[in-house]
Amino acid sequence: MYEHDVIVVGAGGAGLRAAIAAHEAGSDVAIVSKLHPVRSHTGAAEGGINAALQEGDDWELHAYDTMKGSDYLGDAPAVETLAQDAPEDTMRLEHWGMPFSREEDGRVSQRPFGGLSYPRTTYAGAETGHHLLHTMYEQVVKRGIQVYDEWYVMELATSDEDEPNDRSCHGVVAYDVQSGNVEGFKANDGVILATGGPGQAFDHTTNAVSCTGDGHAMAYRAGAPLEDMEFIQFHPTSLPSTGVLISEGVRGEGGILYNSEGERFMFEHGYANNSGELASRDVVARAELTEVNEGRGVDDEYVHLDMRHLGEERILDRLENILHLAEDFEGVDGLVEPMPVKPGQHYAMGGIEVDENGQTCVDGLYAAGECACVSVHGGNRLGGNALPELIVFGKRAGRHAAGEDLGEPQIRTGYGDDVEDETETELPVQPGDAGLDTSSGVAADGGVAADAQGIVERKVEQARTRVDTLMDRDDGVQHAEIRQKLQNAMTDYVNVFRTEEGVKKALRIIRECREEYQNVYVDDPSRTFNTDLQQTIETRNLIDVAETIALGALVRDEFRGAHWRKEHQERKDDEWLKHTLISWNDGQPDIFYRPVILEGQDKTYEPKERSY
Ligand SMILES: Cc1cc2nc3c(=O)[nH]c(=O)nc-3n(C[C@H](O)[C@H](O)[C@H](O)COP(=O)(O)OP(=O)(O)OC[C@H]3O[C@@H](n4cnc5c(N)ncnc54)[C@H](O)[C@@H]3O)c2cc1C
């Protein structure tokens, strides 16, 4: 068994930042990651990092834009912390050597982004995430932080008291991709999940194949609630054939969207009379699909994004990467023709419920980055606001796990006296595991009380049995079949436009996937680099996560941010200024709600009509 003070699961922007912070606070910290750090999905981030750096801008404007962008579902203490800390944390990256793009006078450049009232997005060409990862990984190497890469974390080693708020997390169980061994990692002070997004729950996504919601699912099964999972961001400019992202930086630099009739529809059809292409992402994604649905799409599928008028020099200086992506994945030369784009799943606003210090309701269990929900993005994330979240809240989680006092959090977690119980919504099927054989792997599943070491050892044994069970089966269903069915259902029915009937259909299909998973088998008999086995385990996680997204989408009968419902096309502030929480209770999802916090340090953010 390996042992450290703090174990960080994941080596993307959030995980690296958390590990550096824990190390600076004097902790023996280790990173466990299924990918080598610089292969993490943060490397795909293109557009930039929002931080109020310039004269004329300030953190209060950033906080206001973020609250408005969130459609008033962001929690003000988290939003204000993000906006206040982003400038210093961004400049720290610069001091560590991040090669930000610069103006003639040497200041770092900032560009306009959707929903921002000031050009606040700091960038390094159109490869911001790539440079961010390399800059922070250098700091990890410099500090001698131990990295276990190509170790796949399967479960958390959590105690199993009845109430999740009474449980504690003592480590993780991981599968060594190179050798096939399953081992325990004991964490004396804390486990920080920084496992990224769950984009692979959808068929058309900008996310990498590694984005399988593992952290979400592990925390969920250990009793930490998932928050606001219904809020999925669909980015307006993904390439139709692959889902590869064309950065918002293109529109930030002046790129224009046209329909098949050559109309600049964001203005000409009145979707966003002030901001046009730079309206918030949810607004632009709905506008594009409305154009397609009303017959003004190109090839009945997409619209055009044109950047030719920006000129070759500016494009090569600021958007060169975009030219390569359009050419390589769509065969289009962005210097001489417009690029085809359509909405694609891009980001999960929801995630593991945490407070401002990154803590979940399970003692010793933290989460940061896209897998967490603190909540700064509420119903809709503004472009450029995820990367500052990684560095601001990754740092806070690392420091707190290492024992630093960051003050009493204002955001509460877990089941408590401030939550509203139960939902009236009729569910089409029994969600969760209830009634099924769950021996292929659940946590929080009873068992004898033990000390920390004993808890980790017991979880290791369960995980070894689980791997053996999957490997020993000779036939059954392959994970790829189940995963594709799940992804199709989510893309068909829990997409930009949602109907009650569609979401219910998705829930029925997810239930079928769960039942089929009872007979899943691993075809590859090898113990080394067995991606078949790893993806089989990931598929189980995707089923759990997809179900929470669909359940959230069904119970929230209003239209807010990225969540649009055909039968409920208005925002219902009287009823729905609250977060949806779903927690796993003995194999059954419990749904409850916690009020959103609109009171900031000096002002209350009054919900207003959101127009751009
Ligand atoms: C194409 C694209 C472009 C984007 N551009 C921007 C942008 O310009 N600005 C912005 O603000 N946001 C952007 N975003 C969003 C932002 O990049 C992501 O939300 C963010 O990078 C996620 O970082 P993370 O550290 O949370 O996760 P990731 O970078 O995805 O890292 C997750 C880590 O967890 C590890 N991991 C996962 N599961 C396991 C497991 N079971 N066991 C062990 N390790 C595991 C992985 O190996 C990886 O190291 C973009 C997103 C996409 C998809």
UniProtKB/TrEMBL annotation:
Stretches assigned to the Fumarate reductase/succinate dehydrogenase flavoprotein-like C-terminal domain: 483-612
UniProt-annotated catalytic positions: R281 (proton acceptor)
SUPFAM superfamilies in alphabetical order: FAD/NAD(P)-binding domain, Succinate dehydrogenase/fumarate reductase flavoprotein C-terminal domain, Succinate dehydrogenase/fumarate reductase flavoprotein, catalytic domain
InterPro entries listed in its UniProt record: FAD-dep_OxRdtase_2_FAD-bd, FAD/NAD-bd_sf, FRD_SDH_FAD_BS, Fum_R/Succ_DH_flav-like_C_sf, Fum_Rdtase/Succ_DH_flav-like_C, SdhA/FrdA/AprA, Succ_DH/fumarate_Rdtase_cat_sf
Protein location: Membrane
Region (Disordered): 402-434
Coiled coil: none
Gene3D superfamilies: FAD/NAD(P)-binding domain, Fumarate reductase/succinate dehydrogenase flavoprotein-like, C-terminal domain, succinate dehydrogenase protein domain, Succinate dehydrogenase/fumarate reductase flavoprotein, catalytic domain
Top EC class, one word: oxidoreductase
Topology versus the membrane: Peripheral membrane protein
Domain FAD-dependent oxidoreductase 2 FAD-binding residues, every copy: 5-387
PANTHER family reported for this sequence: SUCCINATE DEHYDROGENASE 2 FLAVOPROTEIN SUBUNIT, SUCCINATE DEHYDROGENASE [UBIQUINONE] FLAVOPROTEIN SUBUNIT, MITOCHONDRIAL
Alphabetical UniProt keywords: Electron transport, FAD, Flavoprotein, Membrane, Oxidoreductase, Transport
Alphabetized PROSITE patterns for the sequence: FRD_SDH_FAD_BINDING
Assigned EC number: 1.3.5.1
Cofactor(s) in the UniProt record: FAD
Record's keyword annotation contains Metal-binding: no
Protein's name in the database: succinate dehydrogenase
Family: Belongs to the FAD-dependent oxidoreductase 2 family. FRD/SDH subfamily.
Molecular functions (GO terms): succinate dehydrogenase (quinone) activity
Any one GO cellular component localisation term in the record: membrane
Domain of life: Archaea
